[in-house]
Sequence to fold (455 residues):
Amino acid sequence: MSARILVVDDIEANRRLLQAKLEAHYFTVMHAENGQQALDVARAELPEIILLDVMMPGMDGYETCAKLKADPRTSFIPVVMVTALSDAEDRIRGLDVGAEDFLTKPVDDFALMSRMGALMRYNAVASELRQRQANGLKTGAVDVISEEELNRPARVFIVDDNPRTSLRMANMLRDGGHVATTLLEAGDMSNLGDLGVDIMIMSLSSQAFDPLKLCAHFKMTEATRAISIILVCDQSERTKAGKGLDIGASDVIISPVDRQELLARVRTQARRSRYIDLLRKRVDRGLELSVIDQLTGLYNRRYMVNQLQQLMHRAVMGGKPVSVLMCDIDHFKSVNDTYGHDVGDEVLVEVAGRLRENVRPMDVVCRPGGEEFLVIMPDTPGDLACAAGERIRRAVASKPFKVSGGRREISITLSAGVSTIAGEQDTMADLTKRADMALFQAKSAGRNRVESIAA
Fold:
C-alpha cells in the first residue's frame, strides 16, 4: 500500500533524507520548506500523511499543525511531528495541537515505516467512509459531532501482569477523568463488550501471555476489532512494538510512562475512533434515508421498486408467487381539510404502524407517496393476499385514531386492491396496474373493502 507524503522541513538535507527513505518503500513524496508553504500544499494536494518538522523559522511546527487541524479541508490528515526534541513536554504539546505522533531525529527506518503503516490503515478506513458519504449520501441528517462528544472520557482496559505498573497507569487515567479497569481487577478479558472498552493499553513486557498474539486476536475478532490498542514498551522492545503496529495496534508509549503523555495519547486515540464512528453513522444514516420514508418510517418508492423487481424475478425463475396489496386511506383529503395537515400526518403515521403490526416479518411495507401504501407479499398466492388485506383493513377500521395529542378521536378506513404475478411475461407495471385497478374497484364499491383483479 502506497501513499502520498508531505515532508515539511526548512533544511533541504533533512527533506532529501526522508524522501530517500520513503521512496525506497514506494511512497510519493512532496516537499514544503516552511509552515505557510505546508498549509498551501496540504490544501491543494491533500496528502495522506504529513511529516512536519517542529523547529522552523517563522511559523513553527506546532502552529502549522494547529492551523492544519483547524481547517476542515485538512483537519483529517494525520500529522507526525519530526524533531530533535525528545522531552515529554514537547511531545505533549504536539499531541495537544492535534499531531498523531512524534518521530525523533535521526529518524529510525523501522519506526518510520511502522508509523506509516499504522496511519495508512487508519486512513484507508476513514477515506473509504468519507468517499461513500461524498458519493450521494450527503443528507444532512447527522450533525457534526461536538467537541464535547469527541473529548468525553474514554473507557480504558489495561492488560499488564505487573500489578504495580498497571495500577499506576489506571490511577493516572482515573485522575485524568477516564474510566480505567486493569486485567488484575477484572480477572479476565471475557467481558470487554460489556465494559464498553474504547482503548486497550497492553504491556509488551508481560510474561503471563504473548502480547502480540493477544493483539492479533483482538484485531481479528469482530467484537473487539474497533478497540484502539496502545502498546507500552521499553527501548529494547522497539522492534517488537513495530511488529505490534504492523498487526494493528494504533500507538506506542515508551516506558516509564509519563502521565501527561499517556493522557494525551489516550485522548488522541479516543478522538480518532470517535471520528471513524461518526463517519460510519453518517454513511449508515445516509443509506437508511435513501430508502426510508421520513414521516412514517416505511420503505419509500425507490426501495419498493427494487424489492418488487427482485421478488418478481425470483417468482418467474421457479419460486413461489408474489402478491401486492395497494392501500389508500378513504376520504383523506377531508381529514386534511377538516383537521389540518398536522393531523393528516398523524393519521399517516398511525396507519403505517397498524400496517406493520398486521403483516409478516417477510412482507415489505412501503409508502410510495401521499396517502397510498403498498405491501409486497413474497411467497403469497392471491387468496392469502386477500385474507391479509382484509386483516389489515379491519385493523385500521377497528378503533378510532387518537390525534392532536390524544384530545380528539377520528374514524379512519382504507380501501385496498390485490394482484398476484401472472407469469414470466408479467411486468412490475402490469402487476401494480392491476392492483391499482382493484383499488379503484374497492373505492367505487363503497370504500373500506378489499378487491382483487386476476390477470
In short: The chain has three domains: 1-107, 134-283, 301-452.
